[in-house]
Every structure is written in C-alpha cells, then in structure tokens.
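Retro notes (design track)

What went well: tokenization of the new backbones is finally stable.
What didn't: we kept losing track of which sequence belonged to which structure.
Fix going forward: every design gets posted as structure first, then sequence, in one message. First example under the new rule, 697 residues:
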C-alpha cells in the first residue's frame, strides 16, 4: 500500500493525464447511440461490390421521398374545406332586420298618400313587409357562406362539409349563397315604387350576414388525417428474398430496398447481450481514437501534453462537438447534424496552437462523429474538406475580415462537396435534398462564433490567443508605458530584442506574435532597480560601485524574480511569463563572477550565487529570445561596431550558450540556429547603420 501511495505521489501528473483521457473515452461512449450498424453504404447508380445480399427478416420497402412529397401535395391541393352553421349570426341579422323594418313600416303608415284610402295604404305596406320577409327567408333557407378565399373559383358541385350541430355532413357549394349572390337576390325584390324599393334593398343588405362560417381548425385536422393516411411504403420483402446480387447496378428501386433494410436492421430492438457487445465495440474504437491523440501529443507536443489546461481544452472540444452532433440527431430530421459548425473546431485549436495539431484533432473528431452521422462517408468527406480549408485559408484569427472571408470559403466548399456527392448518388441535378444546403449555410455562418468562444476559452483555461497577444504587444499597455518611463533604456532594448526575435522566428517557423510579445515583457523586472542596469545609466553614475560583486550579482539576477512577480500582479498569461523565467536560462553573471574570482581566487567553484535560477528555454520561441537578448545587449557594448566584430560576437555568444546546454530542452536544430545567426547579423547591421564590405575585384 505504501508503495502504491508513493507511486501515486511521484506520478500524480501522469495519472491525472491518463484519467482525463479515460473520462473523455467514457463520455464519448455514453454519447454513442446503442444500435447495430449496417456494414454497407448503398450508393445509387453504382454496382454492388459486395456478396449477394439476402434478407434475413421481413420488412417494408420505403417510397421515394419525392413520391411521398408529390402525394402530399396532391392531397393538399384537393383538401376538403369545413364550415359551421352559426345560428346566432342569422338571429342577429334577423333582429336587425326586424328593427329597421318596423321603423320603415311605421314611417310609411304615418305618411299615407292623399290619393290612397287608409285600407289601400295598409294593404300596400303589408305587401312590402311580406316581400322583404320572403326574400330574407329565401336567402337563409340556404344560408350565406363565408368566403375567405378558399372557395374562389370553385365549381357549383364542389363538395364541402358543413356542421349543423349533429356532426358534419357532405354537401355542395351550390347549396349556399355567397354574399354577392345573396345581394343579387335582394336586388330582384318586386317593389314598384323606386323610393320604397331602395329603402327595402338597403334594409335587407344592412341586415345580411354570413352564417355558414369557415372552420380552419376542422379543415386542418381533416387535412392532417388525410396526409397521415399516405403510405410511406410501397411493397414488402420476405425472409430469404434476394435484395441485390453482386455486381448489380443499384437503381432507385434497389436503393430503396437497401435503405429500407438498413433502417430496419439498425432500428431493430437489440438484446441486452447484443447491447453489451456494442458498448465494448464502441469503447474499443473510441479508445483507439483518443489513444492516437494521446500518442501524438506525447511524442510531438510534449509541452502541451504536460500542460493539464491545454489537455483539458483539447479533450473538452472533442467531446463538445461529439455532444452537439448527438444532440442534433435527437430530432426527427437526421440532416440537422449538418447545422453543427464543425469547422469552428480546427479554428479554435489553431487560435491557441499550431496548424498541425488543429488538423489532427479535427480529423479524429470528424471520424468519431462519422459513427453518428447518416451517410458517414459523405459526412466525413464534406467536413474534412471544409475543416482543412478553414485553417488553411485563415492565417490570423485576430483579423475579423479573415474570419468572414473564411466563412464564405467554407460555405462554397460545403456546397461544392455536397453537390458533387449528390450528383454522384442521384445521377441527376434534380431530386437533391435542397434543405441540406440551407443547413450547411447556417453551419458556415455559426463558425463566426469562434471569435467569442476564443475569449471564453482564454478565461476558463488560462490560454493565450493571437488576439490577446496583439493586445499585449501594444506599447500603450500600462506595464509597457510604465517601463518606458522608469527604465527607458530597457524599454528600447526590449523593442530591439522583439524585432530581432520576431524576424528570426519568422524565418525558422514558430509563433511570431508570441515571441514578439514575450520579448517586450522579458525585462519588466528591471523597472524597480533601473539604474543598476547599464542601459539605463546616465552621466557615468554606476550604483554597482558601492556594492560588492556578489551583491551586484544578486541585484542583477533578481530582475527575473521581480519580473515574474510583476507579470503575475498584472495578470499576464503564463506563456508570456515563461519568457521572463527563461530568457537567461541557467547562465551566469560573468562580469561580476570574474570580479569576485579576482578578489577571492580560492572561491572559484562558488558559482551558485552568480547563476540565474532558470529554467532553461523549452521552446523554439524562448530559445530565440535568449539568443536575441544576449546578442542585442552585447552588441551595444562593442567599442567598434562593424560587420566583422558583430559577426564574431554573435557566433561567440550563441556558441557559448550551446556549450552550456541552454538549448537542450528546446526543439531547435543546428540548422535553425545557423540561420538565426545570419538573421541577427543582418538585422544588427541595419540597426547600427552598417553594411558588409565586399572585397574589391
């Protein structure tokens, strides 16, 4: 037990990393659907390359999607409209009619013409009432149907359904008046007197109301019922029936049989025993994918592999996009998986790390998601092409214009690849699943959310992106402005070092923004004791004259520790603090050491007090900064600055650093170091306005 605890204590970081991968594998397996997978991928128009496929179960053959859509359209075009008899509407109209009619008739009775007798006049008025009532009864014996555009242009024998309280009954449109037809009936009322005719027509028209009302809800329910009756199958395959022979071309009919068999096979209820084996298979495959990521990072990205934040960031993104794909498949339309912005994944990885890692992680993730997607090969092909293009066409994510241009290019690649696949599988430009183009366009647009996600990930995982580096590299940053005021010589030195390091890393390959930003901040620890550093001394005053050699060395060395403390106080990213830690590595303050040895020859081996605490540079960028820092500072102290002296000095300084093993932990080659020397020489000559003298011929 003691040995186990000791092993855990000594190897806790390795155990933690392995645990992260195991958790990622567990979540990945959990997200996978529990179903059997059909081992063949049918492609319409291509010969069947496999053995004869004989059905081992009975299943129905699905209809073509376009056929079902056509039948649905026919039902929609021929849908039956439902109406409801509303007695209250008719009664309201009748009440209004009686009120206006009574007023009119009372007026007529009170205003008898002189030439008519009282009896004749009463008989005339009574006749008007009978005629108006007769017209009204004639209209509402049939009823006035509501017209909201549904029955426009329909024939008289068009069938509709009308509910009259005892259920809906079928009838013809001609059995009812429209509002226009009822108006025409009113206008035909037989009243000879023009004034009385006009008044009677107005009374009837004003009281006229629609009492056969359109029932939108009933119409839609009936339509849904009729649509539901449309069969989605067109035949059946029996057990033992040959589905397709080897070499036979997959036509539309056979393709539908294969797809139907695939759906039946994958959707069939699986036993508990089969479920266990499926889980084991999924665990093996997902473990293999994560093992590849594990080995790639362990062998090629050791620094990232040892950084738990980076490891969690990468694994979380793989699981996140796997979860998004699984969520999209919860809906009935499986093609919704194309809405997920998978191209954002390589862009996110590229924002913090290199192109190779971004492409590698994207490829593994898409292969994993392929197990979820319908038509896996097509899905993987489309997403890989678009993902690779997304990171190849966008160089700097901090340029918003580049991100928008990249989104446009991703959309174009999506359309081209999906159209190419559709043309191959359908053999025709028509009949494609056009809605997928819309999904792909949405996916390309959602890639824009990479920008805010970068900011979130920076805060959550303490990472640094190009966007943050660009902000930190601004010389108006409070820390850099403070250095410019308190230690102007150090500030100028840092600017020159950043130019040297930036040019060098640009030539040998690396993160240019990172090395530039690191160079600007590498000497911020000198601010507190600025005059103890030669570049800030003026008027010949040197505070070291008042100190012993070991005390002077202590002040010089302390700028590294002070720089780290100041950087942490101002919340600088760890990646920038690494440049402060490593820019002197484990080298010695040679000047004060030699002075100390002259005074105390017997203490020659006491070097610890003159040595920087380290660590040594562990990346290409930090190694380049160490070289640039040493070379730039030494060049300033040259009494005579010419091409030969600078070249000799550059060679000597970098060679001494190599002899001391300062670059042993950095992934930098001798060839790259040789190239760096040439770049430094060229840049230093430009800085000091010198040029190489060529021999005269």
């Amino acid at each position: 037990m003691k040995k186990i605890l000791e092993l855990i204590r000594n190897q806790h970081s390795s155990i933690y990393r392995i645990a992260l991968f195991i958790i990622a594998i567990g979540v990945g397996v959990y997200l996978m659907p529990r179903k059997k997978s059909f081992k063949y991928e049918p492609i319409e128009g291509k010969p069947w390359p496999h053995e004869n496929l004989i059905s081992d179960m009975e299943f129905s053959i699905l209809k073509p999607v376009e056929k079902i859509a056509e039948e649905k359209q026919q039902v929609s075009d021929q849908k039956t409209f439902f109406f409801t008899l509303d007695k209250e509407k008719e009664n309201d109209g009748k009440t209004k009619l009686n009120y206006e009619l009574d007023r009119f008739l009372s007026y007529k009775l009170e205003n008898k013409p002189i030439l008519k007798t009282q009896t004749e006049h009463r008989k005339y008025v009574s006749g008007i009432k009978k005629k108006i009532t007769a017209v009204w009864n004639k209209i509402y014996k049939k009823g006035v149907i509501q017209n909201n555009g549904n029955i426009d242009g329909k024939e008289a024998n068009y069938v509709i359904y009308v509910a009259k309280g005892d259920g809906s009954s079928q009838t013809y449109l001609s059995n009812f008046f429209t509002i226009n037809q009822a108006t025409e009936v009113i206008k035909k009322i037989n009243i000879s007197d023009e004034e009385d005719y006009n008044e009677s027509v107005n009374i009837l028209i004003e009281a006229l109301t629609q009492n056969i009302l359109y029932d939108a809800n009933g119409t839609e329910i009936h339509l849904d019922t009729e649509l539901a009756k449309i069969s989605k199958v067109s035949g059946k395959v029996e057990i033992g029936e040959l589905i397709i022979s080897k070499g036979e071309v997959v036509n539309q009919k056979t393709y539908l049989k294969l797809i139907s068999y695939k759906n039946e096979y994958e959707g069939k209820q699986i036993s508990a025993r089969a479920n266990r084996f499926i889980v084991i298979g999924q665990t093996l495959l997902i473990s293999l994918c994560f093992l590849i990521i594990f080995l790639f990072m362990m062998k090629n990205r050791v620094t990232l592999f040892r950084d738990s934040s980076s490891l969690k960031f990468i694994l979380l993104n793989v699981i996140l996009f796997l979860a998004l794909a699984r969520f999209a498949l919860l809906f009935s339309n499986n093609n919704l998986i194309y809405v997920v912005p998978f191209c954002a994944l390589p862009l996110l990885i590229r924002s913090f790390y290199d192109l190779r890692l971004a492409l590698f992680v994207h490829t593994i993730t898409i292969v994993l998601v392929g197990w979820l997607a319908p038509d896996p090969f097509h899905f993987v092909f489309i997403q890989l092409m678009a993902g690779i293009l997304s990171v190849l066409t966008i160089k700097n994510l901090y340029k918003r214009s580049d991100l928008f241009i990249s989104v446009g290019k991703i959309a174009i690649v999506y359309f081209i690849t999906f159209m190419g696949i559709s043309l191959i599988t359908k053999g025709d430009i028509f009949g494609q699943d056009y809605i997928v183009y819309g999904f792909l366009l949405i996916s390309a647009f959602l890639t824009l959310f990479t920008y805010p996600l970068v900011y979130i990930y920076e805060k959550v995982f303490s990472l640094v992106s190009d966007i943050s580096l660009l902000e930190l590299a601004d010389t108006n940053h409070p820390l850099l402005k403070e250095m410019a005021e308190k230690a102007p010589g150090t500030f100028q030195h840092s600017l020159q070092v950043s130019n040297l390091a930036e040019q060098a890393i640009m030539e040998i390959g690396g993160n240019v923004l990172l090395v530039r930003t690191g160079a600007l901040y590498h000497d911020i620890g000198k601010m507190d004791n600025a005059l103890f550093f030669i570049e800030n001394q003026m008027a010949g005053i040197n505070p070291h004259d008042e100190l012993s050699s070991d005390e002077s060395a202590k002040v010089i060395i302390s700028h590294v520790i002070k720089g780290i403390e100041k950087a942490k106080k101002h919340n600088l990213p760890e990646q920038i603090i690494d440049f402060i830690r490593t820019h002197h590595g484990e080298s010695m303050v040679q000047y004060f050491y030699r002075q100390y040895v002259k005074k105390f020859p017997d203490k020659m081996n006491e070097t610890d007090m003159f040595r920087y605490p380290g660590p040594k540079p562990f990346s290409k960028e930090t190694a380049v900064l160490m070289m640039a820092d040493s070379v730039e500072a030494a060049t300033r102290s040259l009494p005579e600055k010419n091409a030969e002296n600078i070249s000799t000095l550059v060679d000597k300084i970098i060679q001494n650093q190599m002899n001391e093993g300062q670059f042993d932990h950095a992934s930098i080659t001798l060839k790259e170091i040789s190239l760096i020397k040439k770049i430094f020489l060229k840049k230093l000559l430009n800085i000091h306005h010198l040029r190489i003298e060529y021999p005269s011929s």
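Added context from the reviewer: Residues 692-697 have pLDDT under 50 and may be disordered.
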